[in-house]
Amino acid sequence: MNKNTVIFNHPLISHKIALLRDVNTGTRQFRELVGEIAMLMAYEALKDIETVEKEITTPLETVTQKTVKENSVAIIPILRAGLGMVNGVQSLLPTAKVGHIGLYRDPKTLTPADYYCKLPENIKDMTAVLLDPMLATGGSASEAIGYLKKSGCKKIKLMSIIAAPQGIEKIETDHPDIQLYVACKDGKLNSEGYIVPGLGDAGDRLFGTK
Ligand code: PRP
Ligand code: URA
Question: Ligand 1 centroid to 46 CA: how many Å?
């Protein structure tokens, strides 16, 4: 495994993934869980973001304290399912700019097709936190990372809740320089490109479209 890949092994995240996988979990709870897992993952993934020292006056004296550098992090969900993770990351970084990359996976060829891209103006100077709950073949995330790199972005982190071994391998091969955070590595992909055991279609479960 690439040294830039982190697979979480945390009981709180594991518990929430168990609920997320459950076929009986409805849209509302599914959405809440995706947001909560994203927040827990972001706490770890953001531990090396840029800081600036600020002088703060407490009721007792003045102290110098590290604070998050303004405009240094961009949150980039891959549409649609990545949208479900935005709130969780925003709860830690409420003023972060949000860009969007629209991709869907062709159900026959399993290759990504792009339909939208809007990134913050100074993305090249920011840490991009790319969000997609599912890393299956890795085609969509690899394409999205390619966009970010073409836009000049040098520091990229990808957060995925469930990943297949193939998806992890593709990102590590195509983009060994980025940091990959996966909450749970599953066994395999089925013949339709779904992660098994997985959780089904994340976009449909988040938005109630099936
Ligand atoms: C899902 C998922 C990823 C992609 C993963 O999106 O959210 O973006 O598939 O598959 P890959 O790793 O094989 O590329 P989908 O294309 O179903 O679009 P949606 O989020 O709009 O439902
Ligand atoms: N996209 C999903 O939403 N689920 C999978 O298992 C694979 C791709």
Answer: 24
